[in-house]
Design goal:
Shape: globular
CATH class: Mainly Beta
Number of strands: 7
Order of helices and strands: EEHHEEEEE
Largest sheet: 3 strands, antiparallel
Number of helices: 2
CATH architecture: Sandwich
Structural class: alpha+beta
Strand content: 25-35%
Radius of gyration: 16 Å
Helix content: 10-25%
Distance between the termini: 13 Å
CATH topology: Jelly Rolls
Strand order of the largest sheet: 3-1-7
Length: 103
């Protein structure tokens, strides 16, 4: 097993299909759910930054993936993606922990 963790208050991890328009669809969905305006009490940073801090409530900062032979066992169209709407911080760290199989 592989545990992935994104230790940031404004980003999350997801499994999704890439290259078919899903990225744009996800952006539009997040804009509807978390509008980038000044409605939020959390107001430091750019306008709408409060929405960034709510993103991990909807998109978890961690994933656990099964692994065999050093390769993740993902579905045909699945990719691990970082979901991050926070333009104020372009640097991210991804932590990966390998959990050995129990024999």
């Amino acid at each position: 097993m592989c545990h992935l963790f994104l230790p940031h208050a404004t980003a999350g991890l997801a499994l999704m299909e890439l290259g078919s328009g899903s990225e744009r669809d996800l952006g539009e969905l997040l804009e509807r759910l978390l509008p980038r305006d000044d409605r939020y009490l959390h107001r430091h940073g750019s306008v709408g930054h409060g929405a960034d801090h709510l993103l991990p409530v909807l998109v978890s900062p961690s994933l656990v993936l099964p692994v065999t032979g050093g390769e993740p066992l993902l579905g045909t169209w699945q990719s691990v993606v970082v979901v991050d709407t926070n333009a104020d911080n372009p640097h991210r760290t991804l932590r990966c922990t390998w959990l050995p199989a129990l024999d």
